[in-house]
Specification:
Number of strands: 5
Helix content: 10-25%
Structural class: alpha+beta
Distance between the termini: 17 Å
Order of helices and strands: EEEHEEHH
Mean pLDDT: 78
Radius of gyration: 19 Å
Shape: extended
Low-confidence stretches: none
């Protein structure tokens, strides 16, 4: 699994305090003890993930950011939180006459995603 979030890095004097930088998070899967690594980068470029994951082969759980397509030898898999959000958004834009009731099976299935 990987994610990245904008952050401010106050001790790096070469980067202005108003600039955006990113803290990338990498976490191992189910096998063995869980390992979580943080990687500070000044950009969100897919080259950051490509460099960090050099030599890695396997599944990479990510959001829809296209930069991860640069990482070779991985199978990109989606995030259930992002998938659920899209279903939830779709249900909210339906006309009220077509919406499912809160007790319906479809609403329940979206709620457990």
């Amino acid at each position: 699994m990987r994610t990245n979030r904008p952050c401010r890095y106050f001790t790096n004097r070469s980067v202005p305090a108003t600039s955006k930088s990113y803290l990338w998070l990498y976490r191992t899967g189910k096998e063995g003890p869980s390992i979580i690594l943080y990687d500070y980068q000044e950009t969100r470029s897919g080259k950051n993930a490509e460099k960090f994951l050099s030599g890695f082969k396997g599944y990479l759980q990510v959001d829809g950011y296209a930069g991860y397509h640069k990482v070779p030898n991985v199978k990109l898999v989606g995030c259930m939180a992002h998938a659920r959000r899209k279903f939830d958004e779709a249900l909210k834009v339906l006309p009220s006459s077509k919406r499912l009731t809160s007790g319906s099976k479809a609403q329940w299935k979206v709620s457990i995603l």
